[in-house]
Specification:
Pfam families: adh_short_C2 (PF13561). By secondary structure, the chain is α/β, with parallel strands linked by helices. It contains seven helices and seven strands.
């Protein structure tokens, strides 16, 4: 039996990057995985490659009707939802002076509002079994400063996690946040970006960046019953960066 055997897991932003790694890991451990993303081509290809216990749903995480549709389709296919991984997110390399109000609101909609919508939409499904785990992906920039907009939204995710954890505890639903540091995804480990990442790695206490699987292993722990007494907490995977 896998660590997540027959658990129904919904992962947003699952078509590529860290979301894909989370989805693969959860599937390997016996979960029935629902992958959601706006990238239909990559998302469907991943679900097809995983097999019958994987389902892709095209999903705009900022749209409430889309969220309700994800819950409806998931319950029809697999039953009540056990785990939600609010993974979808964006960043924007603009300064306070250059960022428009539209830019700022787009970041908040995708990084913050989507987390609210996800928790609100999925919690009623979890209540049906009096058991659930919501995992909100924040960042080390939900603990320390970084880019304007991105940092703001990731601090908000941290606070929302604590508020929801208190409200949902009586229903057996746990809510925790994950705060990754620098992750060696294909996007950043190439060209000029790789050189910058290599320089950053020298300042990390563990002297390296994380591999995607190291964050996914934390997701597995929080999704599983092994973390049954953990709620309203931050789980940090940053090689010691925020300890300095």
């Amino acid at each position: 039996m896998g660590r997540l055997q027959d658990k129904v897991v919904v992962i947003t932003g699952a078509a590529q990057g860290m979301g894909e790694t989370h989805a693969r890991k959860c599937f390997e451990k016996g979960a029935k995985v629902v992958l959601t993303d706006i990238n239909q081509e990559k998302g469907q290809a991943l679900a097809t490659s995983l097999g019958e216990n994987a389902l892709f749903i095209k999903h705009d995480v900022t749209n409430e009707e889309d969220w309700l549709n994800v819950v409806k389709i998931t319950e029809e296919k697999f039953g009540p939802i056990n785990v939600l991984v609010n993974n979808a997110g964006i960043t924007m390399a603009k300064s306070l002076f250059d960022m428009s109000l539209a830019d700022y609101r787009r970041i908040l909609d995708i990084n913050q509002v989507s987390v609210f919508l996800g928790m609100k939409s999925v919690a009623p499904s979890m209540k049906k079994t009096n058991n659930g785990s919501i995992i909100n992906i924040s960042s080390i920039n939900g603990l320390v400063g970084g880019a304007i907009g991105y940092t703001d939204s990731k601090f908000a995710v941290r606070g929302m996690t604590k508020a929801a954890a208190l409200e949902l505890a009586s229903f057996g639903i746990r809510v925790n946040s994950v705060h990754p540091g620098v992750i060696a995804t294909p996007m950043i480990m190439q060209g000029d970006t790789k050189d910058a990442v290599d320089r950053i790695a020298k300042s990390i206490p563990l002297k390296r960046v994380a591999q995607p699987e190291e964050v996914s292993n934390l997701i597995l722990f929080l999704a599983s019953d092994e973390s049954s007494y953990s709620t309203g907490s931050e789980f940090i995977a940053d090689g010691g960066m925020t300890a300095q």
